[in-house]
Design a protein that fits this description.
Layout: E1 3-8, H1 16-24, E2 29-32, E3 41-45, E4 48-52, E5 65-68, E6 73-74, H2 76-83, E7 93-96, E8 100-101, H3 104-117, H4 129-137, H5 150-163, H6 165-171, H7 178-192, E9 196-197, H8 199-208, E10 213-216, H9 241-247, E11 254-262, E12 265-267, H10 280-289, E13 301-303, E14 305-306, H11 307-317, E15 321-325, E16 335-344, E17 347-349, E18 360-367, H12 383-396, E19 400-404, E20 412-414
Length: 416
Amino acid sequence: MKADLIVGIQWGDEGKGKIVDLLAQKYDVVARYQGGHNAGHTIVVDGKKIALHLIPSGILNPNAVNIIGNGVVVSPEALIKEMQQFENLEGRLYVSESAHMILSHHIAIDQAKEKLRGTKAIGTTGRGIGPAYSDKISRSGFRVGELRDVEKLSERILEYCTQNRALLDALGVAIPQKNALLKELIGYAKVLLPFIANTTQMLWKDIARSKRVLLEGAQGTMLDIDHGTYPYVTSSSTISAGACTGLGLNPKDLGTITGIAKAYCTRVGNGPFPTEDFGSDGELIREKGHEFGTSTGRARRCGWFDAVACKYACRINGVDQLSIMKMDVLDGFDEIKVCVAYEKNGERIDFVPDDLEGVVPVYKTFKGWKSTQGIRSFDALPKEAKEYLKEIERLVETKIGLVSTSPDRNDTITLL
């Protein structure tokens, strides 16, 4: 049995939560492989909105086991708060003992550094994600499994602060008091210890026993630390390959890869965004799509579908099928645009260059449609909407398997 995977194809916020929630009803295990609580999924079930940041979206399937893998950076405080939304999580939620923790000093460092960048700020959420990953790579981080010995962990944290006193002082970050730190860690351990496990071994056994496993990422391909719009990226590997390192799997363990993309594009934070619309159309997309961050509430930058970037993302992820989300947000537009190429330095190109700054989109215009709201059959879609989807398939050279026509779980067209 292979582990199927869901990956964001754009700049995150594509609607992965709905698809994971929809598909997770058929899976035994749902595992998250990277990112932190800077990510967010909003799921709507029977009209009720549920916001998730760390816990995998499969938590809404009472029969699914949910795993937070070693590639995730975990804020114990944020995780505990999120867990309070649910009852009887023991046996249904596990956190990798090898996942690195986001602690108070990481958040303070993150916010201080972003402030110092001024007009060159990356647009980070300020939640400590980058500093926690930096400590992980520099081999000075703190792992979830260390909560099993909070005395030793507190000593390590204080030693870290002493070694980095010059930096912390320069940034105005206070060094914690030992008693307060110990009390904080004891509180985390009291809640989280029953959920800490060797999740790699768990997944190996589940796959060997032919359990149905679904892997879930955060953010999107264009925010990948290696393959995104660097330096305006996140601090982890958001692509399908990141699932292997973030969970302890090998490439042969991966099954069907589903890429998630909106019928248009959005981006949060700074950085290049070729198809951003600065006019009334962009404002209307934001308003109709309720394009505000699940984690931060920040208004998202909005624009038209970028087929060049989508094709690139499908190739780098090995996408087998695309899920096109929020099709209904484009209802009512007279004309709808799709970016089919770029112009850079006067030259037309059909690929994503190393630097997207200064890129000008080349658009193809489509006739709009009246309504796709709540439609659950491809045949029932307006002719213009069908043509739009077929052209996206042709441009990105990837089959469309799902189309979402409202936030509700059930308003989804299945094509493959």
